[in-house]
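*** Query protein ***
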Amino acid sequence: MDSVQIETAASLTLETLEIPQIVTPPTTLVPTPKPAFRFPKDAIRTSLRASTVDAVLATVFGITTGGILLSNFLVELDASPVVFGLLSSIPMLVNLIQPLGAYLSERTTSRFRYALGIYGTARLLWLILAIAIAIFSWGGIGSQHLVLMTLLIVLATHLLGGLGCASWMSWLAMIVPRRLRGRYFGIRNSAISLTNLICMPLAGLIVSHWYGGTIQGYGVVLLIGVLFGIISIGCQYFKVDINPQLQNSLASTSTNNTTDELDSSPAISIWKNYNFLILLIYISLWMFAVHLSAPFFNLYMLDTLNIDVSWVTLYGSLQAGANLLMMIWWGKLADRVGNLPILIFVGILVGLTPILWLGINASQLDIWLWLPLLHILAGITWAAIDLCNNNLQLAIAPMKNQSIYFAIAAAVAGASGALGTTIGSFIAQFAVWGGLLGLFALSGLLRLAALVPLFFVQEPGR
């Protein structure tokens, strides 16, 4: 799917709607209040297109600053399993700072300017690592110093990202019409998957075949990724800007004319929102179970099975391809049947996936057949999980102080995910507990148990 198809699909779906409007998503099953104000259709179309292009360019940045390429970079530097655990837990643990970021963003007058300052700084920091790799290639610093510098840059950039994430989600929730969320995010995520499908193997080939070695090759693709990341921030200029203070003011006006339940003091207390609290329980259990093993599948292939990084990036492309093919379908299905049924059904498949890794080794059959099939299954299932989890949060969070809700959900997810990764990194080092394979089995069982709270969540509008 190219950019023209993406834009056409977004435009066609918008043509069937009335003028898009900002509404207050109900936090319980009550009637939706009247719209607070309207956006011109042309402005919404431009915003959706800009958001899609932003996502595509940011994906290139993400490929080079995380995932398989960064893991292989650390493997080449002989990093320990604890380093891999920290690498995965840091992005989640720093989500604890998201409530502070939401608080600060609600006191600004522009979502765009806030995002520009936060994410622009965060992405430029990766240039420091690129310079450090060049110095390492010339013998200026040692491998362990480079590992430490990598972790510090990951920490700093994700701290900044934690300050901006809730504001960005609230911004996107306002400009994407509620009735289009499944379809639009399906298209947007498909574009992301297509980018992964194309760029990940190319980046893997550059790294593995660079004449100066894989470490130097990673430095080259990192520079390219940072360039794409900076351009992606520029795309946000074309999105409809939102004044958080005006948003909260209009939300107060809207909620004052609805039910008594919505009349409580400037916004509904999060701790009295039963639906949101149950969702938080699910998020915390799910993130703990998933990230208990998630960082170690690549380590298992690269280190334990000693599979070349080009093969691993190829598997990642297969996963992205499956994600691409299924994302739009999952989005349309979510608009019809809701997000909860999909999360429960697909969550069972995701829970069983780590257990399927128990029989994987470095045989030709596994390399050519079972590993590709496992990654294709992951692409299909995680397309549904990511899309529906995101849509469910958007549906449950009210419009007033919306970023606070997103921040608390992210903080809970980050803390529980980081705890899972930290515990997983220690379990992985001890053969008496089964090592990585024992970790995979435990993670699968906990994923299935984490689905139980979803049976008590009510999806607004369903």
